[in-house]
Amino acid sequence: MTRLMENSNESGSKRDLNRETILKIAQEIFSKYGYKKTTLDDIANAVRKGKSSLYYYFKSKEDLFQAVIMKEVEVLAKELDKVVNRNTDPIDKLRDYMLTKINTFRNLANFYNALENDVTAIGFIEDIKNKYGQDEIRLIKRILIEGVRKNEFEIYDFNLAAIGITMALKGLEMPLSSGTYGNMNLDRSVDIILKIICYGIMKR
Known about the structure:
This protein is an all-alpha fold. It is elongated and about 65 Å long. It has 2 domains: 1-58, Arc Repressor Mutant, subunit A (Orthogonal Bundle); 62-204, Tetracycline Repressor, domain 2 (Orthogonal Bundle). The protein has helices at residues 2-33, 40-47, 51-57, 61-84, 90-106, 109-116, 123-149, 158-177, 186-199. Mean pLDDT is 81; it is low at 1-10.
């Protein structure tokens, strides 16, 4: 009985390893060619397995792509959670949040493209976008509440402020990740944006 359980665990571990290998390679190929141009044959050839082996782990190309996206979403969520939970000054925390988000986004090509490009036609993408947006508003709100408690921020509507900052960050993701300002010093860019968010543009 014990031996059977050991064999079962080994089999399960091997399955998990195989699945992770497929996900990693699929992530690279989707990132390089995009969802529409990538085929399961491309991924199977890169993994050096038959296409039927992919169907053992994933029902379809869309199912595999969803697993890749969810893996990238989890990476981003974990990194942002770390920032929010640090024992740092709220203004520094907001700055670290912005830096972490843009830096992580630069390395999450599939998630970024799925959010911004034509694969939004795939049903699950819209669900992920909505959940991701709500999670981000919640995290920003936590930073703002902490800032008010420490008498560093003056905010009368936390929800509205969190939504405004979240939308501002969303609008900056493309230029700061890969667009016009993609090659600029990110620290300096974030400092400029943070100054506008915290102090506005009015001359004092």
